[in-house]
Amino acid sequence: MGFVACDEGNVDLDNTSEETLVVSIDELQYVLRGGEYRHIQLEPGRHSIIIKDEDGKIMEEATFLVENGGLINLARSKYLIWTDLYGDSNLRKIKLKEDWIDIGDESFYGEFQPIDQESLFLESEWDFGLNEQFPEDMMGWNVKDKYIIKRKLFREADLVEAYHSLVNKNKQ
Q: With the C-alpha atoms ordered 138, 80, 37, 170, is the resulting torsion angle positive or negative?
């Protein structure tokens, strides 16, 4: 059996809390320090998970169903999906549901979908996970129309940072 590259996998295992968590999924155990992230591979089907703190106290025990992949929200943090259109920008108003959304004490304009914080596992509804970036352009994509729509999963703080970075880049 060979080594698996860090970026291969279908599930984002994310600990946005400040404490170290010991996560057992089926027979595999992962130790994630506060703020640590892993991209892991899980086969389609039902999986069991036990989340413990550093002292071994069980914080949660559950099962979840993986169809294609998604996010295990260990700390029940805030995530959003940012939907964007690549191509003819005149189509934005027709193809996207852009509106203002408040995140913290700031307002942002775009198509953003908050993720249900109560769910431990969220099946992927996005094209790009936590460890992937929104592409700069459509190079290499097979685009039949004048546009293509892509969705990316963000931690709330990362979305704020990415949004500001995009705004500053567009000002230049």
A: positive
d(CA 21, CA 32): 5
Task: Give the chain's end-to-end CA distance (angstroms, integer).
Answer: 49
Q: How far apart are CA 141 and CA 129, in angstroms?
A: 18
Whether the pLDDT of residue 145 is over 80: the answer is no
Dist CA 50 CA 31 (whole Å): 12
Q: What Cα–Cα distance (Å) separates residue 79 from each residue in 82, 117, 124, 126, 142?
A: 10, 8, 12, 12, 29
b/e per residue 70-105 (b: at least 16 CB within 10 A): bbbbbbebbbbbbbbbbbeeeeeeebeeeeebebee
**Secondary structure class of 42 (helix, strand, coil):** coil
pTM value > 0.70? yes
Taken in order 130, 131, 135, 141, the sign of the CA dihedral is negative
Stronger pLDDT, 9 or 146, i.e. the higher one:
9
CA angle, residues 11, 99, 122, in degrees to nearest 5: 15
How far apart are the C-alpha atoms of 151 and 107, rounded to whole Å?
20
